[in-house]
Amino acid sequence: MTHSPAYNRVTAEIGRFLDILEYKVQDLNTSTDRLMLSLHNSKQGGMASHFSQYMKNRDLISECWAFSIVIERRLEQLPEDPETPFRRRFTGLTVKIWATLLDCSLKFLDALSRETNLPLGSREVFVREIKNLYDANRWLSDPRYEGLISEDMQAKQRQAERILSTIIDRAPALLELG
Fold this sequence. Notes:
Largest sheet: none
Radius of gyration: 19 Å
Helix content: over 70%
Distance between the termini: 63 Å
Order of helices and strands: HHHHH
Structural class: mainly alpha
Number of helices: 5
Shape: elongated
Number of strands: 0
Strand content: under 5%
């Protein structure tokens, strides 16, 4: 089947964009691993030193999402076929971003919860992480991702659901972080 030059241009662009997104996701995973290692090796009272690393990680996630929007728009220009290699690859990368975000949010919230004195800005981080948990859980529960989520990630999803339920039950008290 011969395609138009416009179609060929769009598919070439999508391929390049997916390569870039994959690189960005690898960069995000490296950043997340560094943050998690740092949190794991940290003693109580050291959260303030992790905030800049946490913010860098959040910036990388934002870059991935922004680039995902561009790719999704390009994919909309292709004929509707959910099983194209581009769409499968994009879906796989989307799952990786959500899985990384969920893992990072869970571990960062856990580290925050172990602190006796929370650093300035903790309330905003806490609220953002609750929203991240909710969004990740909602997206990863979408039927189109069925079969792409590992057992480990399903366990983390269940953990996020439990945390969200607890937070929702105790929301007024937990959001009074000063």
